[in-house]
Amino acid sequence: MPEGDSVWNMARRLQHGLAGSALLGSDFRVPQLATVKLDGWTVLESASRGKHLLLRMRSPAGDKLVTLHSHLRMDGLWRLYLSGERWTARPAHLIRVILRTPTAVAVGYHLHELALVPTDQESTLVGHLGPDLLGDDWDPDEAVRRLRAHPDTPIAEALLDQRNLAGIGNIYQTEALFMHRTSPFTPVSEVEDLPGLVRTAQQLLDRARFGRERRHAVYGRTGQPCPRCGKGIRTDKGQRVTYWCPSCQALSLSSSPTA
Length: 259
What we know:
Layout: H1 4-18, E1 25-28, E2 42-49, E3 52-58, E4 65-71, E5 77-82, E6 95-100, E7 104-109, E8 112-118, H2 123-126, H3 140-148, H4 155-160, H5 170-179, H6 194-209, E9 234-237, E10 241-244
Antiparallel strand pairs: 1-6, 2-3, 3-4, 4-8, 5-7, 6-7, 9-10
Helix pairs in contact: 1-6, 3-6, 5-6
């Protein structure tokens, strides 16, 4: 399940492998782009925006700029291969797009919301997103403002809403709340030191993108002892599975789940 750090790293790998190269060919395996051919187009930049990946390209004549947008959701993946290398990441029926350069091949697996738009219209696809925790636009004050605009929303749900802050997923939402000693069911309005929680989430993703990921304290550890107090980690299987320590992340009577 790619989160902001994984998408950032995918974008960086595509940047290193494709940027500055003219495409020898393209193959789109989705109905809306099936007839599109990008032969001769030059890849200018690969960038991430939350869980969205943006490949910006220039036409052979230099008179057009377009962006190939893909949303990775829970299972999307871009993989870069050397020319002639065997594609081993996933089964072939999951391939949605192939981009070839003289030295490399970029293969997009199980991509969602795949679209090709003029680069100056990228905002129609990603303009709704909140500040990107790993982007140049990161603004913790704006993220806090957006979170506080929905005071009754449980904080775990609010952190996952990409309109508030872009890039955080279930893993880092869970871990940030544990580090902050906050119940995932606490309404936004009752969270103590919301700016501190936002800083913690950003720091976790920032460390993870450079390979300094810490061992998960609660995520995926149902029934195992909390590393802080030794009590068993609990799980709530709502729309998104939530993990927390009922002792370290004390629940109020008004927000406690019935599970």
